[in-house]
Amino acid sequence: MGKYIFGIDVGGTSVKFGLFCEEGSLLEKWEIPTQTEENGKWILPDVAEAILGKWKERGLRKEEIIGVGVGVPGPVSRTGEVPAAVNLHWGYKDVAGELEQALGLKVKVGNDANVAALGEMWAGGGKGAENLIMVTLGTGVGGGIIVDGKIVTGAHGAGGEIGHAILEPGEAEPCNCGNHGCLEQMASATGIARLAGRRLAADSAPSVLRGERVTAKAVFDAYKAGDSVAAEIVEQFADYLGRAMAVYACVTDPEVFVIGGGVSKAGKVLIEVVEKYYMKYAFPACRAARLVLATLGNEAGIYGAAKLVMED
Amino acid sequence: MGKYIFGIDVGGTSVKFGLFCEEGSLLEKWEIPTQTEENGKWILPDVAEAILGKWKERGLRKEEIIGVGVGVPGPVSRTGEVPAAVNLHWGYKDVAGELEQALGLKVKVGNDANVAALGEMWAGGGKGAENLIMVTLGTGVGGGIIVDGKIVTGAHGAGGEIGHAILEPGEAEPCNCGNHGCLEQMASATGIARLAGRRLAADSAPSVLRGERVTAKAVFDAYKAGDSVAAEIVEQFADYLGRAMAVYACVTDPEVFVIGGGVSKAGKVLIEVVEKYYMKYAFPACRAARLVLATLGNEAGIYGAAKLVMED
Q1: Helix (H) or strand (E) holding B94
Q2: Do A252 and B288 touch (CB under 8 A)?
Q3: pLDDT over 90 at B261, yes or no
Q4: pLDDT digit string (tens) for A78-89?
């Protein structure tokens, strides 16, 4: 008789749920809206209710359920407490404690970016690797570090905050974190648009990017279509990202880098151009690392949350 | 009845031995010359003989000995094999296998820089921390990453090769690794001397450093004596090192950085100036990390090697 795990990804607009069997198959997934009203006080009760509902609906016995894994957008302590999570309107919240009390099940909690990395390791682009770095290129740049199959949480919950590696200390504009010249300012979707804006303003070289609102997607589309200004922007982005990844590699020396997030929808060309710069900058032994695309998309969080429960 | 551990640090000129009790006291230490002749074929037999001699001399019973830990200057596989170690004139060597066969004891092997980091965690500047980054500023810049009390070896034995983080991709001179602009080129003893040479050549500002052979020690001595050119060099070094450490921090988010190696003999002033730049560049949550000096000096290797045996 197989056992079951609930994997949950709490986001600012919706909470995603997955019911997994312990071999890793996703049996069913669903989502509910995230109620951030009243400092998000209903989020965990809503999560508990959804789990209890599915538990009853499926007629599962308690001993068949291994536990519940949860990814949240914020730092998480070893004991599953969250000091604050801005997107959920949370101050301090004992996520593991509250859900354990409501459900009577083992609950494990992790930061959403770290949990997504674990998901990609378990069932996605990094399948089979035990040492992995995930780089998520979205509105910001997030990440997750896996060493020997386990998430590196860090002493202050900032393990994997790789978007905040400073590459250009002389950068005038501040990053969201308050520092200057972070990778996030060059390699996130907004960062790429920013690089593009600067490049386009620098001269009047012809480009299909002129005249439209420049997004990271537009830059990659123009790059694929052979636009030479877009190519310069993409090379600049890839130079920054490849160099940052080379620095991370000399810290934990991963077997594989998994690149995800909205920007990664550019696909294989993104891997190719980033790999060129990674190989240029990496310490020789680290050049054996592979660069791959994330494959789980929005489901990485629920997969990783389920895996979190199986970790110990 | 207490148990015993042998901690061994195999260097290019001498092999250091320590006999520890499991609580961590160093009962006795000694060393023998490293015989690198004939591709270093006598090194491991010499090590085994020295251990067997001490074992007999002390009248230890086999069941009283937990095992033997060994640090070697080169990459080490999970199974204790060394693909090559240039300073020992070794090609492939099954260090764990050879010593286990000769001694009939459990043998654990690690890279010397990583093992030193473990030693500083166990009994040195990082005592009490489970998440630590050691930065060794010697002829080169080495390092060791500890996550949850364990060494991060990496997928290709390059975990902790933090001296090869590229900070100045436009640097014209190559690093020993073949890349350009690695931290090692700015923060090692030779790197600091190099920064000093450049600064002194840039103009004719008066400095006590002029006219003598410029070493890292001379730079720090002049800095302590109030020399303003030396201060510029030290600030430049600290800016690079502090920025590099801030990048490492956003990967594994350590509780403490332990700074060791010959350059660290400059003492407290070194910590103060590096901390200034680390705080400037670090991701906010990572600013809670402490910077401390290594305290075990040349004994970090034997302590860490002993701890390696106790790890599992």
Answers
A1: strand B93-94
A2: no
A3: yes
A4: 889 998 888 899
SS3 of B92, please? coil
Report yes or no: A84 at the B interface, CB cutoff 8 Å: no
Structure tokens at A50: 């959804």
Decide if pLDDT at B1 tops 70. no
Pick among A151, A176, A250, A290 to test the B interface (most B CBs inside 10 A): A250
Q: Which of B113, B124, B107 is nearest to B48 (CA)?
A: B107
Per-residue pLDDT at B265 exceeds 90: yes
Cβ(A46)–Cβ(A15) below 8 Å: yes
Report the half-sphere exposure of B169 (CA within 13 A, side-chain side): 16
Question: Is residue A30's pLDDT more than 70?
Answer: yes
List the domains of chain A with CATH numbers: 4-118+299-310 (3.30.420.40), 128-295 (3.30.420.40)
What does DSSP assign to residue A226?
A: T
Q: Which amino acid is at B291?
A: L
d(CA B284, CA B286): 5
Look-up of token digits 């931290």: B183
Q: In whole numbers, what is the pLDDT of chain B averaged over residues?
A: 95
pLDDT of B86 reads 85
* pLDDT given for residue A269 in this prediction: 98
Question: Which residue, among A141, A247, A277, A311, would best test binding to B if mutated, counting the most B CBs under 10 Å from its CB?
Answer: A247
Residues B276-286, mean pLDDT to the nearest whole number:
96
Return d(Cα A53, Cα A47) in angstroms, integer.
10
Report how far residue B140's alpha carbon sits from residue B248's, in angstroms, rounded to the nearest whole number: 18
Record the tokens describing residue A159, joined without a space.
């393990």
pLDDT at position B240, please?
Answer: 98
Q: What ipTM is given for this predicted complex?
A: 0.93
Q: Does the beta carbon of A156 lie under 8 angstroms from any beta carbon of chain B? A: yes
Structure tokens at B296: 């075990």
Q: Which amino acid is at A203?
A: D
